[in-house]
Amino acid sequence: MADLDGDFESAESGASTTYPQQCSALRKNGHVMLKNHPCKIVEMSTSETDKHGHAKVHIVGIDIFTGNKYEDVCLSTHNMDVPNVDRKDYQLNNIDDSYMSLMDESGDQREDLKVPNNDLGKDIMSRFEKGETFNFEK
């Protein structure tokens, strides 16, 4: 037998960024991958069964990162990829040298995010200087 050398990567349980779910089980305000984009479902409709006995599901979603709109149609019995979406809230505590000091609900600190150099960054700085309290989502 030949000696097999190679580099193999392994992943922990839950390492996948998506999981399969039947189209008929998807719901409005849930998430789905549309055209390889993670989207929040904003509209869904199901057609009557066709001559082959399959119902079609029309899904409209908004990309959770860009806000772009995507649509797709799939058979109700087919699977679609659903992204693993994790939401975490942070409270802004301080801004030092353009880096934000954020704290999550469990009290863990995060100080590796720089204030963006755009209109959003200007808004964050302005609101922070006025003493407003606000949260960030991850």
UniProtKB/TrEMBL annotation:
<dbReference type="InterPro" id="IPR008991">
    <property type="entry name" value="Translation_prot_SH3-like_sf"/>
</dbReference>
<protein>
    <recommendedName>
        <fullName>Eukaryotic translation initiation factor 5A</fullName>
    </recommendedName>
</protein>
<dbReference type="InterPro" id="IPR014722">
    <property type="entry name" value="Rib_uL2_dom2"/>
</dbReference>
<dbReference type="InterPro" id="IPR012340">
    <property type="entry name" value="NA-bd_OB-fold"/>
</dbReference>
<dbReference type="GO" id="GO:0005789">
    <property type="term" value="C:endoplasmic reticulum membrane"/>
</dbReference>
<comment type="function">
    <text>Translation factor that promotes translation elongation and termination, particularly upon ribosome stalling at specific amino acid sequence contexts. Binds between the exit (E) and peptidyl (P) site of the ribosome and promotes rescue of stalled ribosome: specifically required for efficient translation of polyproline-containing peptides as well as other motifs that stall the ribosome. Acts as ribosome quality control (RQC) cofactor by joining the RQC complex to facilitate peptidyl transfer during CAT tailing step.</text>
</comment>
<dbReference type="InterPro" id="IPR001884">
    <property type="entry name" value="IF5A-like"/>
</dbReference>
<dbReference type="InterPro" id="IPR020189">
    <property type="entry name" value="IF5A_C"/>
</dbReference>
<dbReference type="Pfam" id="PF01287">
    <property type="entry name" value="eIF-5a"/>
</dbReference>
<dbReference type="GO" id="GO:0045901">
    <property type="term" value="P:positive regulation of translational elongation"/>
</dbReference>
<comment type="similarity">
    <text>Belongs to the eIF-5A family.</text>
</comment>
<dbReference type="GO" id="GO:0003746">
    <property type="term" value="F:translation elongation factor activity"/>
</dbReference>
<keyword id="KW-0648">Protein biosynthesis</keyword>
<feature type="domain" description="Translation initiation factor 5A C-terminal">
    <location>
        <begin position="84"/>
        <end position="138"/>
    </location>
</feature>
<dbReference type="Pfam" id="PF21485">
    <property type="entry name" value="IF5A-like_N"/>
</dbReference>
<keyword id="KW-0251">Elongation factor</keyword>
<dbReference type="InterPro" id="IPR048670">
    <property type="entry name" value="IF5A-like_N"/>
</dbReference>
<keyword id="KW-0963">Cytoplasm</keyword>
<dbReference type="GO" id="GO:0045905">
    <property type="term" value="P:positive regulation of translational termination"/>
</dbReference>
<keyword id="KW-0694">RNA-binding</keyword>
<dbReference type="GO" id="GO:0043022">
    <property type="term" value="F:ribosome binding"/>
</dbReference>
<dbReference type="GO" id="GO:0003723">
    <property type="term" value="F:RNA binding"/>
</dbReference>
<keyword id="KW-0385">Hypusine</keyword>
